[in-house]
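Fig. S4 source data, part A: sequence.
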Amino acid sequence: MAKRSSYICQNCGTVYQRWQGKCDACGEWNTIAEETAAVAAVPASQRSKGRGRVFALESLTGTTDEAPRLVSGINELDRVTGGGFVRGSVLLLGGDPGIGKSTLLIQACAALALRNARVVYISGEEAAAQVRLRAERLGLADAPVELASETSVEDILATLQHGPSPRLVIIDSIQTMWTDTVESAPGTVTQVRGSAQALIRHAKRSGSTVILVGHVTKDGQIAGPRVVEHMVDAVLSFEGDGARDFRVLRGVKNRFGPTDEIGVFEMTGLGLREVSNPSALFLSERDLGSPGTAVFGGMEGTRPLLVEIQALVAPTSLGTPRRAVVGWDSSRLSMVLAVLETHCGVRLGSHDVYLNVAGGLRIQEPAADLAVAAALISSLTGAALPADAVYFGEVSLSGSVRPVAHMGARLKEAAKLGFKRAVCPAAGNESGNDSGLRIDAVASLATLVADIAASSEGQKRKTVKVSQ
């Protein structure tokens, strides 16, 4: 056996022939490490004589049964996975340390084991006693979950093949696994890729569902080679803020379901609790009557979600004003500011702009443009927006407000939470309004700015009269 050295980026998995300080693929510094792999010294003349195995080919015609799913019993988890775990699928779950990945998985294992399904939990980071202590704290010690602390992939596969195939296998985490077929150190890109490939092959042959837990980097990406994300069937991201109790499970990739669904949980002393109405959770601490706040009627997959947009526009003495965004796309904010200045006459070149999505949720859809613009104008003029109004709509570069999808679902969710009016695009509501809300249709952003400015003047005159 001959040995060959290569230099692999431990962040993205790019292979180089020599060492260099910065990875050209991901831009990270000091992540390229040397790895040695064994190569069989077989002459080319002998390798060319090998013949492959002939396999049968099938046609496109015929009946294909829908892949059976394994329902975990946790509704928010089943929503993100598309209705449950597909038999023989492999999922990759990533999240910050301490966010609750192990808690979520041990709860899912206990729910399945209590329904007479064989579940195996392999921990490579904690001892079996530590996992058992967590289960006792969550009140799940009586669940018949099979537990082990092991890092050798060959030993794990031999154990899983002994007896009936498990319905669910948890590997916590994939970065701690190692295989004899690779001579690199555990945790390196080569070991992670080899271990994942062996576990994926076992899942496809046995029909067991395998969930791999992955660490994340400082920018929130799942650590290890990006090729692992392409090897698995689904990639889930468990997000949240350590200062808050709620957690969001988001599907990044899913071959058997949607990728725009989210599951919302609340971290309690007894584990993760499902949040059936996340809109009420995100709006529970809303500051009514404060300038610079607007309620956005958004959509996450098939679920309507109402969140509060907070904006602060303050004068600055610096040559370059500051733009800070939390929970939204900074490029999208720059576009909205440019439209306000070009088509609405709002001068923000001498003001700092701060934008925040309350609750720590991250919004990705452009329907939040109208709510962001309303919050910015409200903060600039000092006029509080109506507390019973919800905003949504996409702003184009010409200043017009474009319609968005699922307007009926957004309006019904707002009506359910007690809102009385909706500021939304003039077009796009062809299906009618059966929510009972009053619709304030706006065709252009200039109309919204004029309405908020008129409300600001009215509030100032009212304040003057009261002071007199």
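Fig. S4 source data, part B ends here. The longest helix spans residues 445-467.
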